[in-house]
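Reopening this one. Same input as before:
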Amino acid sequence: MKILVAVKRVVDHNVRIRVRSDGSGVETTGVRMSMNPFCKHAVEAAVQLSEAGQASEIVVVSIGPKASNDVILTALAMGAHRGILIETDAALETLAIAKLLARVVDEEKPDLVLLGKQAVDDDSNHVGQMLAALTDRPQATFASEIKLAGTDLEVTREVDYGRETIALPLPAIVTADLRLNTPRNAALPMVMKARSKPLAVRPVAEFGVDLTPRLTIEKVSPPPERAAGRTVGSVAELADIIAADINAMEAI
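Same output, byte for byte:
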């Protein structure tokens, strides 16, 4: 089985997000970047399938500037076999990303495509579903467990009422939830070894996809600062405050 994993470079989840002074977006200059956490779970799932002898090749693809090589290198150090960078400095919308990935799927013809369920920079949760539609493949989103069952894939999904398990025929698209696994840390020797693995850098223009934005961002602003909490001396005092707040709300 051949697996394609899509990964995204985002602001590191430990970094405090700052909005640009002109309100045009989130500040990324001079900010630590890393692989989107959900994408890391997708890579780990692919590597575990490979280690179990159920996957023969793992190809990792990322779309972004040249610096996105670092997240591909991380995936290669975790155990992926080769990488593809679709290089562009443009801020792409989710539909354009899905169309580019569909071209890669058409070229690589993987049996399974794994993605993070969403990226923590925009939380769109679009690309996996759009890719499934564009490639006409069955999909399972929010996966917390993946098993290969003969020629089918058995996927347990996180849903509003708990969990459900479904069977998908391959080839298929699956998006990873945080409960899917615990991603491994790539040790320095593995990172050094990963540098010798194949990594193809291809310009975005090579794919012939219309990247024209369909949305206009008018302004990005940080959320209002939270009011400081209050310390009370007793449960009775807290009850009086709550009752007063309720009465004030009912009077409005």
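So the earlier flakiness isn't reproducible anymore. For the record, The mean pLDDT is 93.
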